[in-house]
Amino acid sequence: MSPRGTTAVVGVAESDLGEVPGMSPLDLAGQAAVRALADAGIPKSEVDGLFTASSYYPMSGMDTAEYLGIRPSYVDGSTIGGSSFVSHLLHAAAAIGAGLCTTALIVYGSTQRSDGGRLVSPSKPNPYEAPYRPRYPISMYALAAARHMHEFGTTREQLADVAVAARQWARLNPAAFAREPLTRQDVLSSRMISDPLTALDCCLVTDGGGAVVVTGADRARRSPGRPVFLLGAGEATSHRSISAMPDLTTTAAVDSGARAFRMAGLRPSDVDVVELYDAFTINPVLFLEDLGFCAKGEGGGFVADGRIAPGGALPVNTNGGGLSYCHPGMYGIFSIIEAVRQLRGECGPRQVDGAEVALAHGNGGVLSSQVTALFGTEGTL
Fold first, then answer.
1. For residue 122, is the peptide bond before it cis, meaning its omega torsion is within 30 degrees of 0?
2. Buried/exposed 327-361: b ≥16 CB within 10 Å, e otherwise
3. Is residue 142 part of a domain?
4. Is residue 216 domain-resident?
5. Residues 162 and 295 reside in one and the same domain
6. Cα–Cα separations (whole angstroms), residue 294 to 254, 285, 314
7. What is the CATH number of the domain that holds 267?
8. For the chain, what is the radius of gyration of the CA atoms?
9. Are residue 31 and residue 163 in the same domain, yes or no?
């Protein structure tokens, strides 16, 4: 049985974002959870499904349940990088459909900025890549960007336009960490980190947490807010190390997107707003191609000259994305939060008029795991 429309998001929230000294990752996860449950109008005592992932806590499900003071009947601590939380949506829908839980909390917290910007990772260096001394993970994304430029003629200017568009959206979002004006030239002239990516081609490093509350569709309709329904989701993985990626210009989003669209019974042309994991400026270029918004090789032209910025042809990363809004180590949960808020009509100056269908896409590892989710309002069912 397809989970299309059987579950809905009824609450979303972030913790305090940016630089939040004196807090632990669990403090921020807890802060976001309390806010999301308040948004849903659901008491903590009714949470019987917990979905979480962490770079800090290897047994994140138990650590988080203990901190929150809950004893869920279903726990999923699957970790596939920054896409984990979009994956958890599909897992939560399956668990609710199977009667394993009724109210699922998806939650995350990180203090990466307060920790000095260090990327916390339990992974050991790849012995086949380590001799080349890559800067993990940026060198891996730079490799994909360089290949895309070589194969399709994508330019640094086009990549810079991704960062500029994200900043233009962030300037409409009071919660965004970086809101000062940004030009294409600013991006091109910023410090080179890993050729061809400069400092402003790279995501932020912030503290922050997020939480999403999911429940069955019938109960969601009785919630105090406007429910947003999960129409489709798909996940896929193609490799772990960049040296094992089958094609540096094509990600497993080809598969995850196809599965999500098939479940939802939709096409890319039906999507009103797109929230993508933009760890680096090459990411939206690749994902827009692989998800079917443009043909392979045309992503550079698709994102250029304000086409994904406010007022452009396709609203992409309307909160400012990982490039300008926040990026506390794993970004995927924030793509869900923004997609839901857009469909609720809660985004103020950055609101996309008439948005009925939203896509959230998570990326994990080094273009390794890809998870796509499609959401809709009641009218899309």
1. no
2. bbbbbbbbbbbbbbbbbbeebeebbbeebbbbbbb
3. yes
4. yes
5. yes
6. 12, 9, 11
7. 3.40.47.10
8. 19
9. no
Q: Quick check: is 248 in a domain?
A: yes
d(CA 149, CA 62): 44
DSSP conformational letter for 242: G
53 and 86 together in one domain: yes
Query: Domain limits at 48?
Result: 7-115+206-227
How does pLDDT run across 87-110, given as a tens digit for each residue?
999 999 999 999 999 999 999 999
Question: 58 exposed, middle or buried (CB, 10 Å; 0-12, 13-18, 19+)?
Answer: exposed
* Cα separation values, 115 from 64, 118, 324, Å: 20, 6, 19
pLDDT digits (tens, 9 = 90+) for 42-78: 999 999 999 999 999 999 999 999 999 999 999 999 9
Residues 48, 143 within the same domain: no
pTM: 0.97
Any domain includes 86: yes
Closest C-alpha to 277, from 323, 240, 226: 323
**DSSP label at 123?**
P
